[in-house]
Amino acid sequence: MLQRLLPFLTLIVLFVGLSIASPDHFLSQTNLSSVVRQTAVINLMALGMTLVIISGGIDLSVGSILAMGGLLGTKMMAKGYPIGFGIFIGILTGSACGFVNGILTTRLRINPFIVTLGTLGIIRGVTLIISNGLPVHEIPPAFSYLGEGTLLGVPFVLWVLVFCAVAVHIILEHTRLGRYTFSIGSNTDAAYYAGIPVAFHTTAVYVICGMLTGLGGMIEASRLMTGQPTAGQGYELQAIAAVVIGGGSLRGGEGSVVGTLIGAFIMGLLSNGSDLLGISPYVQQAIIGAVIIIAVSFDELRKRKIT
């Protein structure tokens, strides 16, 4: 029970601590809205990563997928296509990349770490080739609403995030895909001999991860109002960290949407608080790495006690 409550308690302690350390800046509506907008992209990627990690896999290519999705989506808008079509292309691009990861992992039976490490470089390289290393700037001004707009006084991206979180939660807890994802992550061989179509459902999980990452790429492009071929570098680390901090196990079979969201917001508050307190970005990276090691260590110690 304490293991499950620890991320939530950590989030509360962090929030209270930053409120005391910098009350005038941290608790301002502008800053809190900024935290929500900044963490929305990582949250979306982490939701997809939750499914992948529960299934026993991992996706190191999400940062590159985000860049390609954002670039191709904004390219469509720059050519005169409607904003909705551009967003659709970004999401479709992410889904296609996820499908490739799933197929390579299941059909060729290659370790997902190796597969996605390879596609990380391939997708990033193709994105740079398509763009010639140059960002896309000719974007309709109305596109900024996706990343910076508000609805009923709440950042629009928060509505998007809540919708996606509820959808992923329903998939995990109330659908066959969710049950099979837990089964595959717990014991792939047992799931196979139980008659579960392991390859199909594993591929589906990577497609959903790519789809959410593609959406994250469009939100990132909307916030920056540019399609950057270099966007998303290092985001895979933050997405994986959010899942692990939230109680997900890199061994597979464990994880939850609520835990992942808490983990992502812990990361967001750490980054925001470090900026407010004048802590170097380099130190922030070290803190994130340390938090990952601590979270995994807690998971390992818990499993040793169980066994």
Topology:
Layout: H1 2-21, H2 23-26, H3 29-54, H4 62-78, H5 83-107, H6 112-131, H7 145-148, E1 150-151, E2 154-155, H8 156-174, H9 176-186, H10 188-193, H11 198-224, H12 235-245, H13 257-276, H14 281-306
Antiparallel strand pairs: 1-2
Helix pairs in contact: 1-13, 3-8, 3-9, 3-11, 3-12, 3-13, 4-5, 4-6, 4-11, 5-6, 5-11, 8-9, 9-11, 12-13, 12-14, 13-14
Summary keywords:
307 residues, mainly alpha, ABC transporter involved in vitamin B12 uptake, BtuC, 14 helices, 77% helix, globular
Order of helices and strands: HHHHHHHEEHHHHHHH
Could you name the CATH topology?
Answer: ABC transporter involved in vitamin B12 uptake, BtuC
Low-confidence stretches: none
Instruction: Report the major sheet.
Output: 2 strands, antiparallel
Mean pLDDT, to the nearest integer, reads: 87
Describe the model.
This protein is mainly alpha-helical. The protein has a single domain (2-301), classed as ABC transporter involved in vitamin B12 uptake, BtuC (Orthogonal Bundle). 77% of the residues lie in helices and 1% in strands. It has 14 helices and 2 strands. The chain has helices spanning 2-21, 23-26, 29-54, 62-78, 83-107, 112-131, 145-148, 156-174, 176-186, 188-193, 198-224, 235-245, 257-276, 281-306, and strands at residues 150-151, 154-155. A two-stranded antiparallel sheet has the order 1-2. Helix 3 (29-54) runs parallel beside helix 8 (156-174), helix 3 (29-54) crosses helix 13 (257-276) and helix 5 runs antiparallel to helix 6. The protein is globular and about 55 Å long. The model has no long low-confidence stretch (mean pLDDT 87).
